[in-house]
Write a structure and sequence with these properties.
340 residues; Heat Shock Protein 90; 3 domains; five-stranded mixed beta sheet; globular; membrane; Histidine kinase; transmembrane helix
């Protein structure tokens, strides 16, 4: 009978191994489709960019739009949006599969232990996987930022240079001067965007002046760019652990960017206070608000942005809440117990 428990564990281990193998097959298939989708998405993106640039050239030159051009652009845009939706859904599915595989592997580790005879540390494995996934998501976010910012500036600059070459060849010097002035202004705006982009990667103010100083500086720049009313009330704070400061900074940053996107022009209030041993952060906008249940019903999950914010908050032991309903704005609150 003494061998019975060992046999049961071996049988359980075999079942888990089979399940992991099957899940990895599904994961590989989904990953192959994701790779294919990314190639199709890049091709559709290039095609759409080309059509948009062609349309701008036609408008700038006062030339008529060819028959069917608008319909073609609309169809390409529709195809691009469909691919983007499928890509987002598949990425979510892959992430769920990754989590499921990690959870099963953690269970398997508790049964088998390591090859050296010591129990494997499943939480260390989960943490390593989380770090890897976090880095990958950050790279994807940076890629989107570069595409929407500096890449667009360069594309517009290239169009302007080609326009200048055309005007120079036809000796239309008065128009050439106007286009060159516009090119210079676009280049200066692009440089400001790149500098802002670099500053947001790792805000130097956070290292120099702490969380309060960095937030005040970011909100000042946000107000200048967005031209929205932002009320700020931040208590003087002691220096906090670096990981807490950067997470709270990113939460404010993400909440303000969400307000810029979904509640343009709406008044915003940012509060950060120490109260009864807790650090309390709130960011409220007076925009249109939304119905979280409707978002989940349509997408099958909470929005990616809110999920990312919630996960960041939980990593530092904070409690994250979003309060909103249609017509009553949106408020993000974070409560972090301060350990003495």
């Amino acid at each position: 009978m003494s061998s019975a428990p060992s046999a049961l564990l071996e049988a359980a281990q075999a079942l888990i191994t089979d399940q992991i193998a099957h899940l990895r097959t599904l994961h590989q298939s989904a990953h192959q489709r994701l790779t294919q989708l990314e190639a199709e998405l890049r091709a559709a993106e290039r095609q759409l960019d080309e059509l948009v640039m062609q349309g701008r050239f036609l408008v700038e030159r006062g030339q008529p739009v060819p028959p069917g051009f608008t319909q073609r652009e609309q169809q390409v845009r529709k195809d691009y949006e469909a691919l983007s939706s499928e890509h987002a859904t598949l990425r979510h599915t892959l992430r769920q599969l990754d989590q499921l595989i990690r959870q099963i592997e953690m269970s398997s580790a508790t049964l088998s232990g390591s090859s050296e005879g010591e129990p494997a540390d499943p939480w260390a494995q989960a943490l390593r996987a989380q770090v890897i996934m976090g880095r990958e998501e950050e790279r994807q976010r940076l890629a989107r930022e570069v595409h929407d910012g500096p890449a667009q500036v360069l594309a517009n600059g290239l169009m302007g240079v080609e326009r200048c070459q055309t005007l120079l060849a036809s000796q239309r010097f008065a128009e050439l001067g106007v286009v060159l002035d516009q090119l210079g202004e676009n280049a200066r705006e692009g440089l400001r965007e790149v500098r802002s982009f670099i500053a947001e990667l790792r805000p130097a103010k956070l290292d120099e002046h702490g969380l309060r100083g960095a937030l005040l500086e970011y909100i000042r720049r946000y107000h200048e760019i967005v031209n929205a009313s932002v009320k700020v009330d931040i208590d003087p704070l002691p220096r906090l652990p670096a990981e807490i400061e950067i997470v709270l900074y990113r939460l404010v940053q993400e909440a303000l960017q969400n307000a810029r996107k979904h509640a343009p022009g709406a008044p915003i209030a940012v509060h950060l206070h120490l109260h009864q041993g807790n650090l309390l952060l709130s960011i409220r906008d007076e925009g249109p608000g939304f119905d979280p249940r409707e978002v989940i019903r349509r997408a099958g999950r909470e929005s990616w942005g809110l999920t990312s914010m919630r996960e960041r908050a939980e990593l530092i032991g904070a409690h994250f809440v979003v309060t909103t309903r249609p017509g009553h704005g949106t408020e993000v609150t974070v409560s972090l117990p301060m350990v003495k």
